[in-house]
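Supplementary Methods. Inverse-folding protocol.

Structures were first reduced to a discrete structure-token string of length 125. This string, shown here, constituted the complete conditioning input.
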């Protein structure tokens, strides 16, 4: 589950946060804190829809993950079946500087904490 947006955190491209109850992915880094989703005039964040689903109709500004990359829709197709990287289409824009997974979707526990929990569980057996 992504973490709630924090105005004191500096986010990077690919980071996913919850803001006003909706998930957003950062598609262009600001390099400093204080740039929330839905800030007037900014295009730093896009609505995050998760893994691309060929049966879903996406809207302009939606962001998806497909083949280890994030894409955001710049032109709406109005119907399903228009995946990123479809030959001849320019509906989607690749988010540069991101490769999934890399920890952008903030996890509730650190890798170190998960490993410690796994070691503890293996000792019980």
């Amino acid at each position: 589950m992504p973490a709630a947006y924090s105005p004191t955190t500096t986010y990077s491209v690919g980071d996913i946060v919850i803001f006003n109850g909706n998930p957003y992915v950062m598609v262009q880094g600001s390099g400093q804190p204080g740039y929330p989703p839905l800030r007037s005039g900014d295009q730093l964040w896009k609505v995050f829809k998760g893994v691309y689903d060929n049966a879903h109709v996406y809207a302009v500004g939606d962001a998806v993950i497909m083949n280890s990359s994030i894409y955001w829709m710049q032109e709406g197709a109005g119907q399903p079946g228009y995946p990123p990287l479809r030959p001849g289409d320019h509906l989607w824009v690749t988010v540069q500087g991101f490769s999934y997974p890399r920890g952008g979707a903030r996890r509730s526990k650190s890798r170190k904490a998960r490993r410690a929990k796994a070691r503890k569980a293996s000792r019980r057996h």
